[in-house]
Amino acid sequence: MGKNYTQMKYISLNDKNHKVSFEDAVVRGLAPGKALYFPEEIPNLPKGFFQNLNKHSKEEIALEAIKPFVGDEINKNGLQRILKKTLDFEFPVVPISENTGTLELFHGPTLAFKDVGAGFMAGCLGHFVKKGNLGKITVLVATSGDTGGAVAKGFLGVEGIDVVILYPKGKVSEIQEKQLTTLGQNITALEVNGNFDDCQDMVKKAFSDSEIGEKRQLTSANSINVARWLPQMFYYFFAYKQLAEKEQKLVFSVPSGNFGNICAGMLAKKMGLPIDHFIASNNENNVVTRYLKSQKYLSKPSVQTISNAMDVGNPSNFVRILELFNNEFKPLSNQLSSYSYSDEETRKAIKKVKEKYDYVMDPHGAVGYLGLQEFLAENPDYYGIFLETAHPVKFLETVEKVISEKVEIPVSIKEVMNKEKKSIEISDYAELKEFLMQ
Ligand SMILES: *Cc1c(COP(=O)(O)O)cnc(C)c1O
């Protein structure tokens, strides 16, 4: 039987005696000492729920899955409203070959799978502000490209919340810049004369500036926030719903950077979703691939690749995966495989899949495809899904060069490209502070 969770607590992974409510975990983002929050208990969903998944809408499925984690801190109507807005697009599983399909996660408003996490977090924070216990909030983020767009779009028009995004001038793609700078309303884009690290440094400084703190309540929309991490488990439920009649064992290959997405999938399994195995597919930033071989976790500085959203040297969500397995290596390695690929191998895979199956993958999806094929070669009794985490149009130059063809530009991108860019140029921290103090 499903237990009734009226109030889920979140513990700090550095100190299990530090417990907070869902609202506090969302508003704070991080526990003291930059530790991650983690649900005190992982709920089990009733077996019947999984057997009848295809009888439910995606909003109903998402509600059942997330309810225990939110408890009564957001009422059912409120939660339904947030989910309806967040999940307002398709998550199709597209067959590629006999034993392989891809789950397309790029049909959201900014064509990034991060749209779901950003939208859900915006909905939750907006709800808490509206309830009146928080006051007005400013979300301050630095972006190197994709995250900023998803966060901006998620928070667009949410009452009581202003969003200020810093991005490095001339260092994001044209599409990404348009997605950041054309929204208006409660979203302001600050174009920084500097690089991404400069943006990040300014944001950090602002968070510790008490004068700004007196004037504005600042929050980050960081990717390790529980409200961005947890809703990613929906993808796996939605895929399973579409595969209901398949009788083979099921494996998911997840192109991984910070390991939030795959960790949410492993959480879904722990809640009862019948998934047999996971593959963490890495580019050359492969600390987890090496860990599973050697049992030694050695982080190293990130290297730049063509699947740049996965250029992470020390994935912050990996501690959450370890926690799911009580830090025991054996059970973890029974459930998780990991492979790593070079840019050259990634390009070859994009070309091959286009030629053989007439399907265009982006570089991240291609890494996922490669990991899946390597696993299936040794485990032919599985059906495999790799996650397509970005639309190929977002990596136009790389993809078009490899397939020697134009990638079709989606309507939503054409629209945003025709809008007028609005940004405020700043060069140093003093200018950021002046903006935040007005
Ligand atoms: C963020 C991102 C990833 C990595 O996801 P994690 O949850 O950080 O592992 C993969 N692909 C794309 C396109 C992304 O934007």
TrEMBL record:
SUPFAM superfamilies with a match to the protein in the record: Tryptophan synthase beta subunit-like PLP-dependent enzymes
Catalytic activity of the protein: O-phospho-L-homoserine + H2O = L-threonine + phosphate
GO biological process per UniProt: threonine biosynthetic process
Domain Threonine synthase N-terminal: 9-86
The enzyme's E.C. designation: 4.2.3.1
A molecular-function term among this protein's GO annotations: pyridoxal phosphate binding
Top enzyme category: lyase
Family annotation (InterPro entries): Ser/Thr_deHydtase_PyrdxlP-BS (IPR000634), Thr_synth_N (IPR029144), Thr_synth_N_sf (IPR037158), Thr_synthase-like (IPR004450), Threonine_Synthase (IPR051166), TrpB-like_PALP (IPR001926), TrpB-like_PALP_sf (IPR036052)
Residues in Tryptophan synthase beta chain-like PALP domain copies: 104-372
Pathway(s) it belongs to: Amino-acid biosynthesis; L-threonine biosynthesis; L-threonine from L-aspartate: step 5/5
Keywords: Amino-acid biosynthesis, Lyase, Pyridoxal phosphate, Threonine biosynthesis
Listed Pfam families: PALP, Thr_synth_N
UniProt modified residues of type N6-(pyridoxal phosphate)lysine: K114
Cofactor(s) the protein needs: pyridoxal 5'-phosphate
Homology family: Belongs to the threonine synthase family.
NCBIfam families: thrC
The name this protein goes by in its record: Threonine synthase
Species of origin: Salegentibacter salegens
Upper taxonomic lineage: Bacteria, Pseudomonadati, Bacteroidota, Flavobacteriia, Flavobacteriales
